[in-house]
């Protein structure tokens, strides 16, 4: 917790650094390089799962979450629930237009939500969007803030358009995205005139481009953060958002297999993975939700306990070696997978590392989809192919119980919570990343050299 | 009606009993003392590279000994108390949290002897930890659960003081026998840090008085005085003008006059309040000008257009309706010039037979114009905001300028222009965040600075005044 405090302090310090006392300047083009390479800008199928950080540049949602995960008005001015949270009405903001000039209407918003959520009954009235469900939708406002529920429509060319602060001027799938400021943005035009985003750029090329001043901002992998900082680069780092975890591809078939999975978890030396392979970045994880969100993560064990691991292994027989698949595009994937196999061997478990997509278990990076703890937990469960957690109520104890149940399925072994980081050039001002990882470029501006 | 409320003195400050029990993460970072700051070395006029901070207590400013000093001091005390009291009320309610957790523990263990260990998983101070331990012990005792040494206990209780995104989280792990512990949790709201001015601040050459603080961005603030005493506080924000009445030592929130407008406000919204003689005030926002009308029941009439904003009582300039700067067009022109380069702010410096105008340009330079010749100064370290203040010190006019430093808290410093080069005449006055607005008041006796406190996230409006230092 102290480390997180220090981290947050460091992040806030960076915010201070980014506050020039000169007023923001309008104009210029921000050049960004990204690892993600979305094949389309369609919010549900492509953008949300591949590059959710881009969603807030192009699209708005009915609701936005503030820094404490409280739902705040965005395209919806207000909302209320009836019949035990089974019927929700969202009053739509007036005077908002899509990038193609067509007005945002309740019909358009309802249509977008219906497409993203086929199981909901979504309809429109003169001024509102109605969402009805047979089961209570207790977290609906928070859910509507997810990138997948961004409000979009198709223009005359069949391309998705939104109401966000930037509009698309050129998109080459997986390669390049050029955005221009939306002069009529309902929440004030951004300072930047345009953004050029190179997609699918590898980490090394990005780093060189930043060094040469060819781009203003790049993605930084966790293992690059220390180097960038030591070289005097400006680094903006989020709180640990993403979960690096081992995910079993199927449910356990027996109590014996469950003991083996437990043995594997107890045999992992997470602190040394963090210090040696991740250059000290991130936080050792015992739980699925990071401690700065839940407050109780320390209750889940994360320490190396080799005697316990060996004892559990001793009571269970591993019939065939497990295959651990890792992402070949992740430069650290192989190293981490090898370290896990090595740790497992200490307790008598045999793991074979594989770069194929098939395996008994996978080493994955599960993104935090929302600051809302219940949605975040459900997002991790869905991404891991585990059953979504059921919440018996909204209290912290009930959240803890739901997370405990999810861990008890033994589908997920948390390893490390990782931050997201960017290296940014000297001219960039007001760079900030919302706590859920989304980009907020509408306040970013580029300084000219001081006279 | 006039604006005469001088703030040359610093306000008194009040401590609140709740503060002692506020957890450290909710406590304010001590504000930089309002002090003299001696410059050891200054590469630019704000001394960005190396500053030696030394607190020096001034002797009393002569003008402060004038009549009504005592009553003004009392009034300011009341004003500060009125402003600070609601902020201080944010302190967390530990006794209630202690009571809830103790009840859960007692329901689990039943009456008997337990050991109690407190684990600090947030940034609680030792004093806080001890206070919470005492509170828990006392609450448990009333429920029949006695805290004893571990070797005498039938159950062990470890209470972790943690925090989540939204709340303080207290978690008790209750161990009875060899089974898994029972987990009990309670939460209490994490509220905004109270903002407290430093105690017993000394008198200063450049001083500030907190006028108002709120969550949303303040564009400008004006204090309306009646018979020399503050009567109303006008606060301009993006929604409208909020009028509070000073009554029994408190600002009592009253009428809110909404600003009607069609187009979206630009980013980095700016606005200005100007008190008038024939009606109460005018409010200027990009592309919108509003005037108050009526007497007892005040209303606000707004019109869209590009009316010039007043720079002084007899000089105006056009403001870009979709941006955060003045276009450079002047009304009336200064001598033969009707326009200058676009600028963020401008102030006059009256000279014996002409007025020197200073413009904070978009490129960060300071443009000087006397009606005949123009001059550009660079490398001064000036930010985008300037305000002129008339005083009884020095040449009688000082220019307050923000700093353009990227690596330090924002600051304001007073300068004089004996010729064309600025000469710093005050120490820098640092703020706990960026200054988002700086305007001279109606008669230029003081200025109003608005800052966004990075710790609390709130916007704070301060009155800045120049006192003659010793």
**Please, how many helices of chain B?**
3
Query: How many domains would you count in the coordinates of chain B?
Result: 2
Hey, roughly how much beta strand do the residues of chain B contain? 35-45%
Please give the order of strands in the largest beta sheet of chain A. 10-11-12-1-13-21-14
Share of helix among residues of chain A?
A: 25-40%
Brief descriptors of the model:
heterodimer, A: 451 residues, alpha+beta, D-Maltodextrin-Binding Protein, domain 2, Dipeptide-binding Protein, domain 1, Dipeptide-binding Protein, domain 3, 3 domains, seven-stranded mixed β-sheet, six-stranded mixed β-sheet, disordered N terminus, B: 470 residues, Methylamine Dehydrogenase, Chain H, Rossmann fold, 2 domains, 3 helices, 11% helix
Write the layout of secondary structure elements.
The complex is a heterodimer of chains A (451) and B (470).
Chain A: H1 2-17, E1 29-33, H2 43-50, H3 52-58, E2 63-65, E3 71-73, E4 76-82, E5 87-92, H4 106-116, E6 121-124, E7 128-132, H5 140-143, E8 153-154, E9 160-161, E10 166-172, E11 176-181, E12 194-198, H6 203-211, E13 217-220, H7 222-230, E14 234-237, E15 242-248, H8 255-267, H9 270-277, E16 283-284, H10 291-294, H11 306-314, E17 322-325, H12 333-346, E18 351-354, E19 361-366, H13 373-383, H14 396-408, E20 412-418, E21 421-424, E22 428-429, E23 445-446
Parallel strand pairs in A: 1-12, 1-13, 17-18, 17-19
Antiparallel strand pairs in A: 2-3, 4-5, 5-7, 6-7, 8-9, 10-11, 11-12, 13-21, 14-21, 15-19, 15-20, 16-20, 22-23
Chain B: H1 69-88, H2 94-109, E1 112-120, H3 126-142, E2 145-147, E3 155-163, E4 167-175, E5 182-189, E6 206-214, E7 218-226, E8 229-237, E9 240-247, E10 250-258, E11 272-275, E12 281-285, E13 288-293, E14 299-304, E15 309-312, E16 315-319, E17 326-334, E18 337-339, E19 343-350, E20 355-361, E21 366-369, E22 374-377, E23 382-390, E24 397-403, E25 411-416, E26 423-424, E27 429-430, E28 435-440, E29 447-452, E30 459-466
Parallel strand pairs in B: 1-2, 1-3
Antiparallel strand pairs in B: 3-4, 4-5, 6-30, 7-8, 8-9, 9-10, 11-12, 12-13, 13-14, 15-16, 16-17, 17-18, 19-20, 20-21, 21-22, 23-24, 24-25, 25-26, 25-27, 28-29, 29-30
Helix pairs in contact in B: 2-3
């Amino acid at each position: 917790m102290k480390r997180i405090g220090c981290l947050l302090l460091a992040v806030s310090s960076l915010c201070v650094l980014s506050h020039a006392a000169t007023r923001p300047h309008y104009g210029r083009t921000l050049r960004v390089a990204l690892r993600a390479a979305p094949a389309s800008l369609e919010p549900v199928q492509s953008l949300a799962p591949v590059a959710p950080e881009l969603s807030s540049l192009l699209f708005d949602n009915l609701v936005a979450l503030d820094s404490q995960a409280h739902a705040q008005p965005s395209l919806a001015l207000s909302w209320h629930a009836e019949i035990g949270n089974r019927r929700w009405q969202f009053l739509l903001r007036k005077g908002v237009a899509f990038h193609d000039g067509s007005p945002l209407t309740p019909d358009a918003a309802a249509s977008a939500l219906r497409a993203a959520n086929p199981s909901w009954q979504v309809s429109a009235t003169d001024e509102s969007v109605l969402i009805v469900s047979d089961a209570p939708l207790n977290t609906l406002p928070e859910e509507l803030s997810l990138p997948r529920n961004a409000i979009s429509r198709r223009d005359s060319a069949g391309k998705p358009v939104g109401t966000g602060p930037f509009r698309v001027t050129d998109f080459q799938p997986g390669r390049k995205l050029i955005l221009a400021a939306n002069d009529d943005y309902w929440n004030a035009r951004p300072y930047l005139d345009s953004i050029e985003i190179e997609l699918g750029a590898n980490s090394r090329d990005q780093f060189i481009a930043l060094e040469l001043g060819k781009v203003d901002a790049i993605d930084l992998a966790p293992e690059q953060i220390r180097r960038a900082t030591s070289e005097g680069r400006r680094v903006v780092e989020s709180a640990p958002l993403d979960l690096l975890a081992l995910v079993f591809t199927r449910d356990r078939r027996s109590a014996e297999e469950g003991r083996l999975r437990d043995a594997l978890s107890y045999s992992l030396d997470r602190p040394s993975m963090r210090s040696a392979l991740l250059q000290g970045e991130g936080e050792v994880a015992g739980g699925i939700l990071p401690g700065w969100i839940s407050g109780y993560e320390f209750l889940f064990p994360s320490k190396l306990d080799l005697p316990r691991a060996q004892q559990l292994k001793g009571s269970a027989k591993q019939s065939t070696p497990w295959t651990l698949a890792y992402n070949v595009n992740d430069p650290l994937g192989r190293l981490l997978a090898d370290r896990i196999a090595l740790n497992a061997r200490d307790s008598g478990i045999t793991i074979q590392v594989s770069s194929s997509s098939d395996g008994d278990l996978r080493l994955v990076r599960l993104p935090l989809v929302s600051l809302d703890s219940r949605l975040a937990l459900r997002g991790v469960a869905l991404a891991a192919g585990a059953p979504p957690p059921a919440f018996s109520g909204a209290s912290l104890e009930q959240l803890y119980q739901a997370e405990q149940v999810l861990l008890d399925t033994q589908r997920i072994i948390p390893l490390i919570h990782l931050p997201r980081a960017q290296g940014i050039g000297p001219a960039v001002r007001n760079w900030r990343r919302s706590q859920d990882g989304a980009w907020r470029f509408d306040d970013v501006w580029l300084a000219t050299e001081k006279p | 009606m006039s604006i005469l409320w001088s703030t040359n003195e610093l306000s008194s400050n009040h401590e609140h009993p709740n503060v002692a029990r506020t957890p450290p993460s909710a406590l304010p970072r001590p504000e930089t003392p309002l002090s003299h700051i001696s410059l050891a070395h200054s590469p630019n006029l704000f001394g960005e590279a190396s500053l030696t901070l030394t607190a020096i207590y001034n002797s009393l400013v002569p003008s402060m000994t004038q009549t009504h000093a005592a009553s003004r001091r009392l009034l300011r005390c009341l004003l500060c108390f009125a402003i600070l009291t609601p902020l201080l009320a944010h302190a967390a309610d530990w006794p209630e949290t202690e009571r809830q957790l103790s009840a859960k523990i007692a329901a689990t263990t039943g009456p008997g002897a337990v050991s109690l260990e407190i684990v600090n998983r947030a940034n609680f101070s030792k004093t806080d930890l001890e206070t919470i331990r005492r509170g828990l012990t006392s609450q448990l005792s009333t429920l029949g659960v006695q805290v004893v040494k571990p070797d005498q206990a039938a159950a062990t209780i470890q209470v972790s003081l943690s925090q989540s995104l939204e709340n303080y989280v207290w978690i008790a792990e209750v161990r009875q026998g060899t089974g898994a512990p029972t987990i009990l949790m309670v939460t209490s709201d994490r509220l905004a840090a109270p903002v407290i001015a430093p105690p017993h601040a000394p008198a200063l050459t450049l001083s500030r008085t907190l006028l108002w603080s709120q969550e949303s961005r303040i564009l400008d603030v004006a204090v309306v005085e009646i018979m020399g005493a503050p009567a109303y506080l006008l606060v301009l924000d993006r929604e409208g003008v909020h009028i509070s009445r000073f009554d029994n030592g408190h600002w009592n929130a009253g009428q809110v006059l909404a600003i009607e407008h069609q187009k979206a406000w630009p980013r980095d919204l700016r606005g200005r309040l100007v008190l008038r003689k024939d009606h109460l005030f005018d409010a200027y926002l990009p592309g919108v000008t509003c005037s108050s009308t009526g007497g007892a029941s005040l209303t606000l009439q707004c019109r869209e257009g590009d009316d010039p904003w007043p720079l002084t009582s007899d000089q105006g300039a056009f403001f870009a309706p979709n941006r955060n700067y003045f276009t450079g067009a002047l009304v009336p022109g200064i001598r033969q010039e009707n326009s200058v380069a676009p600028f963020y702010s401008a102030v006059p410096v009256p000279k014996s037979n002409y007025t020197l105008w200073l413009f904070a340009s978009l490129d960060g330079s300071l443009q000087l114009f006397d009606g005949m010749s123009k001059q550009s100064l660079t490398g001064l370290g000036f930010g985008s905001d300037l305000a002129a203040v008339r005083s009884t010190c020095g040449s009688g006019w000082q220019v307050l300028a923000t700093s353009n430093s990227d690596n330090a808290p924002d600051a304001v410093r007073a300068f004089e222009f004996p010729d064309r080069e600025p000469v710093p005449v005050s120490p820098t006055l640092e703020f706990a965040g960026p200054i988002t607005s700086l305007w001279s008041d109606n008669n230029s006796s003081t200025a109003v600075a608005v800052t966004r406190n990075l710790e609390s996230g709130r916007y704070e409006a301060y009155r800045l005044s120049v006192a003659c230092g010793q």
